[in-house]
């Protein structure tokens, strides 16, 4: 069955206490209408980001209850398509981002998107749509949609685009899936704190893997397996993503730790997803391996 969720059905946290705005069966398709990271309040170059978010950051459309999903299962969210709005925005926030000491003033640029091409003044570059926030409710305390964690959340991983499958843990009955914070394009690092933020429509198919025991997000593309990490420092986040990948190689290839560790140093890429303000805001990373090596 196909469903559609309006972009006003949003939450700013992943929280087991939230009432679901939609109930679906495994195998159903859902189109999530999503707001940009500022909940649609930035409409011109004069709308600078010198004030707090209107109600929170990175609104996630949902939550969606998946019937029959139980703690200990895995949730597979296959991203079938991302349809972008006609324009998004880029911005600089005074005193923030990776180059905070050089960011002396606020600035905003509305960026039209026409036929898959972003128009930044006289410059043109292709869009690469991706979902910044996708996750399920944790069993414990709520987690803001600003942050990543074992539940998924604000991973800001540019591989989470059309054709990707995101495997997430089910920690509470029904999983309570939320999705949002689409970027038309985002360079690794997202160094200003802000990608090409844009409203969108994201169509996904949701499946349940019974008893999968999924503990952390795992992203699957046509060509790669991608583990994720987050932490207060780049080292901590990279260590977590790399550790998850070594565990995956041990499991899938039947290797001991030393062999999996050695192999990772030869064939696994550890990459930055978001490092916009290390030390002040969590860093997110990924580790990537080819499916040619790992079935």
Alpha carbon gyration radius:
19 Å
The average pLDDT value, as a whole number, equals 97
**Total DSSP helices:** 2
Q: Ranges with pLDDT <50 over ≥5 residues? A: none
The helical percent reads 10-25%
* Alpha-beta classification: mainly beta
Name the strands of the widest sheet in spatial order. Answer: 1-5-18-7-16-19-20-22-21
Quaternary organisation: single chain
The dominant shape is globular
Order of helices and strands: EEEEEEEEEEEEEEEEEEEEHHEE
Beta strands, count? 22
Strand content: 35-45%
Describe the sheet with the most strands. Answer: 9 strands, mixed
Distance between the termini: 31 Å
Tags for this entry?
295 residues; mainly beta; 9-stranded mixed beta sheet; 7-stranded mixed beta sheet
Short description:
This protein is mainly beta and 295 residues long.
Describe how the helices and strands are arranged:
Elements (H helix, E strand, L loop, with lengths): L1 E4 L4 E2 L1 E2 L7 E3 L4 E6 L25 E7 L7 E11 L2 E6 L14 E8 L2 E4 L2 E4 L3 E6 L7 E2 L3 E2 L2 E3 L10 E5 L7 E7 L16 E10 L8 E3 L3 E8 L2 H20 L3 H11 L1 E6 L8 E8 L5
Parallel strand pairs: 1-5, 4-6
Antiparallel strand pairs: 2-6, 3-13, 5-18, 6-17, 7-16, 7-18, 8-9, 9-10, 10-11, 12-15, 12-17, 14-15, 16-19, 19-20, 20-22, 21-22
Helix pairs in contact: 1-2
